[in-house]
Each structure stands twice: as structure tokens, then as C-alpha cells.
Design goal:
elongated; mainly alpha; 40 helices; 3-stranded mixed β-sheet; 712 residues; 59% helix; Leucine-rich Repeat Variant; 5-stranded antiparallel β-sheet; 4% strand
Amino acid sequence: MAVEYTTKVKIFEQGGLEPLIRLLGSLDPDVKKNSLECIYLLVQDFQNRAAVCELNIIPPLLGLLESEYPVIQLLALQTLEVISKERETRILLGENKGLDCLLKILENNELSDLHVETLAVLGNCLEDVHILQQIQLTGGLKKLLSFLEVSTVPDIQKNAAKAITKAAYHSEIRKILHWEEVEKFLLSLLDTNNDEVKVAASQAISAMCDNIDSKCVLGFQGIPQLVQLLSSDNEEVKEAAVTALTNLTTASPRNTRTWSHNHLFQHCLGAAPFSHGYNVICIVAEAEGIEPLMNTLNAQRDGAISNAIAVLTNLSLQEPSRVNIQSQGIMSALVGPLRSTNSQVQSRAAFAVAAFGCDADARTELRNAGGLGPLVELLHSKNEEVRRNACWAVMVCGSDELTAVELCRLGALDILEEINQSTKRKNKFSEAALEKLLDNNLSQKYSRMGYLSSSNIITNGFYDCGQIKHGEKFLSLEELSKQELTDRRAIIFINAKPQESVIVENVQDESSSASGASSKEKARKGKGKKEEEKPKEVTEVAVTHTVQEEINPENSHWLPPPDFILMDYINDASKTILPLTSTREQVVALAQFVADKMGGSVGREQLHNFFWELDLSKIEFELKSNVVPIGKIKRGTFYHRALLFKVIADRIGIGCSLVRGKYNRAWNEVKLVEHSPKGLLLPPQEYIVDLMFEPGSLLKQGSAKADQYKRI
């Protein structure tokens, strides 16, 4: 009757517990055994567990531990194991000297068949700080650990490790266990031949890692053993070992630097890593743990994959380890986890992409391995942590133009804009990711935002296709060039680069390996950046008007035609405007230069007779294309002139922004430092540059003239 739940309830309601407990004192061993078995079955229900404590069951149960019948002793221990899950029972055990009884059983080799169940009861008792302190003060804990160290019974070893795991969730208990050097026992269990024991020991090590001192001991001595377990054929062993490695390499100021988003951000910026005390990251590398960790990414259990990613991410903090991990193809290996359906795997995979994506070659590898698609998909995740880490990874990967353009093509911008419009889903990483993508894809940024700052440097390949409507697909310049001629707004593109150099570079990229190509691309970009950062040393562009005609279209990417006129503009500006001594003089001279190249000054009252649309239509008809190089435009209005001003200003080192207004208006904003009559420098003032009516005039931001220039 005590087996079935419904009859359990009836026994309880009829007051059956009290007479059953009374019968434990019967002289008939069969009565004792049957009563005890009935009580054992009843206390599986929490209501009965609470009731038997109030009926003072502990003394008779402890008395039965001395029975001459093993079956009665075993049932008594099993009953104690169930009811000692309640704190009140553990307190009563201590008050009735039950702990001493249990320790005596362990010390008696003749009772070895009861040791497993005895340890299960003591394991429950270890969860209570007060009781553990009692055991420690009487020397019982030391006796217990000594017994465990010499035992070779797998079930005893396993249950002991599990008991330590449960107990170690309390900080005070962790301290006591550390004082008793429990780490030595746990490390010894890793060398056993039983997989269940290895799993339990690894889990206990994970729990003890929350104690800093324990982590130091376990990290120094245990990491090589845990690394070996990663090669186990048992998936559960592998998962437990890599979980322990995760806890050993994470979030301890005495061992390694905490991997938070903040630290990752500093790492991505190239901040020098530091650590306090012994650095367990180095131990993992010295134990040759990187290769087995990489292999664990192909494990069958999500927990193993998730924790392997976490350890590899922690290892990336050290430069030699990071280089080693990247050389083994970490980004390609992360593509599978990014596609996982497990949210923890997704989250940690995205976070790892952010950690390793600080390197240009790693971003190229991820791009070539098809990892950007699943990364963008994670932006849709309903899991906040997954979404946040995916945003962070997109922000890091968007640090170079090629990856940023690909992310945009995959729809990252639209998703991020949608996220940022939601007060619940928006976060600082989604905002930063959107900004980073746009900053490395200026054509889209100008189309969507209508604004380029002075730090947004326009490079070859930029194009202005007008303001894009929300939800409308943003087409590439190649796609736009293939469209039939229409009467829509012309697309203005920038390419001050000779065709020959573009072709040579493209052929080099095609013939090189993926890694080699990325290195050359990186070198070219670095060189280009340095040239842009030294505006006073602009090198004259060697322009040749002979274009290689024989290009095999099957072996080359589409390339925008060179704009030789724009090249001449930049060379002329470098010679005549750059040598001027003050920024104000340069701005004025450049404004006059741009206006002169685009039809000169236009009176306000004559603006409607300027007919720039007709000239632009003729150019489009001549080119049989909607895409027009800016150098071809000889009669340009506000937005043509503002774009040309920005392009040349960026090339010769004049800081200016580009702002799109309504009705074909656009303007440039510059900041100039004023001098007071006493020669003191005043805060910089912002001006709008007049390129239309009085070219070279500087209109103070906020003034009536400036407002009039920006509006019809």
C-alpha cells in the first residue's frame, strides 16, 4: 500500500506513521524490517518526510544501525538518506550524535557493504555549514577524507565526489573543504579507471572553483589531467572535464582576467592583457590543450561544445594562445556552433566570434567559411543573451569594409535597425553594431542616415544613390550599373583610381590563397590608411588615360571605370590648396575650386534656370547608364558639389562632414578655430560652406543665412 501515491495519502491521513515508528522497537526482526520498509516507501513523499521528523524517528533509526541483520541496517541507512535531505532532520542527526554513528560504520571494514549508503547520508549532511563545522571540530571530516582517499570502490568514490559537489555550493563550506585539502582527493579521482567517478570528480572540481584558493590549487595540478580527459571516448566524461576547464579559466582575479564584455572590448582595442597570481591560461596551453579543445567542438553533447568554446575564448586573452587557436581554424570551426539550436551554444559561439574577430585574417576566414549568415540569423534570436552577443560579434566583424558590406548584404542592417527601434530588445551592443556597420559601409550610411561625419573618409567605390526608403533593398554599385537606363535620379560614384592598378590587384587576389589574399588586402588597406592620415604629404596620382582593353570577364570581378577627371581634381587641389597655411584658407579655396568645376556661382534668383538636370540626363544617355562618375558632371547642384567637396577634402586632410537635406539639398559642415583679439584660442565654431551662391563664404551654423542655404 505504501508504494502507491493515493494509498500513501490515506495511510498518512489515518495516522499510520506513528504506529509504524513505534513498531521499529519491536522484538520481532520481521516486524522491524517490514515497518522500516513501509516507512522508507512513505517518506519518498515530502509531506511524510516532514511528519516523521516531528514523530522523533531519528533515535530508533540510529538504533537499527547496530542491528545484527544487514537488511535492517541497509533499510535504516536508505531511510536516513531520504529524510536527511531536509535540514531539520540533519539538525536532529547532529543532536543525537548520529554523525558519530555514521563515521564508525565507515571505520569498520566489516561493514563495507554499508559504506556507500552511509556516505550518501553524510553527503546530505555536508550541505549544512553548522553540521560540517561540528564534524570538522571533532576531527570527523579529516577521518572522512582519509577514508575516501584509500577507498578503491567506484560507487564510494563517485558518491563522495557528488556529496562534495552539493556541499561546495555554499561559500563557507568551500572554505572548510579547502582547509581540509579536499582538492588532493578530487585530483586523485581523475586518475581512476571508472568513467562515472571521473565525471563526478570533474563536477566537484567545477563546484570548488568558486573558492579562489581552491582554484589556484586545482588549476596548477588538475589542468593537465582534465586536458587528457578531453580525448575520452565517453561523451559525458568529455563534457564534465571541459566544464571544469571552463570554471578554472573563467572569472577568478587570482588566476586569470575575467572575460566580461568590458574586457573583451579592451582586448579588441589591443589593450595589453594582465593577470594576477598564477595564470591558468598558460597551463592549458603548456598542457597542449588547444588541439583537444578544438576537437571537442565536434562533440555530440551541447554542453561539451558550449564549454569548449568558453575555454578557447578565455585562452584567446593570451596572444600566443590566440594565434595558435586561429592557426587551427577556430572561425571555420565556429560555423557549426553558430547554427546550433541550443541557445547556450549559440551565445558562446557568437561571443567567441567577437573575441577572435578582432583579427583581420580571422574575419576573412569566417567570411570565407560562410559564418556570417548564421551569425546574422542569431540577431533574430528571442534569447536576450544570444542576441546581445550576436550584436557584439557583428560589431567586431564589421571593422573592415569587405566584411561590413557582406553583413549588410545578408540583412544585418535591417535587423539591427528593427532591434534598435524596440525599447525591450535594444541594447548598447545593437546600437554600436549598427554604427560600426554603417561606418564601414559609407554608401549605405549616407543613403540611410543622410550624414557622414568628418571621421567618415570617402574612399574609391563610394556611391550616392539617394535616400533609401525603409525596407527597400540596398543594391550594390555593380547591380545598379546593370540596370537599364531610367529617368530616375542618377547614381554618382567615386573612383579616383587608375584601371590598371585595380586590375593588377584583382588578379593578385584571385591567384592567391584565402589567407594570403587577406594579408595582401590588409597590407594595402594599411598603406592606404597611412596615406590618408598624412594629408600634408599627398603624392600626385600618376594618371594614364590608356585603359587595358583585353580583360577576361570570366576571370575578373566587375570593376567601376576610373574617373580620370576626379584624379586630376585631386592632383590640382593637392598642388594649389594643400600648401595654404590655414585651414580656413584651404576651405575657402576648395569651395571656390569645387564651384568652378561644377558650373560656377549661381544667383539665388537664377537657381531655377540652372538646368543641371538636363546636363546630367545627357551624361546618362551618353554613358547608357544610370551610374555617373562625379568628374563627368560639369553643371552640378547642391548635392553634387557637397559630395565633391567632401571627397577632395578627405584626400587632402580637411575635416568636414556631409549632410543630406531635402529637395536635392546637401551641404558641408566644417569646424574652425577662432582667435581672440588677445591671441587666445577660442572653442571651434561650426560653419556651413557655401558652394552655390557665394562660393567660399562660411555661414555660421544656426544663423539665418546658414538656415536659408539648407532649405528652399
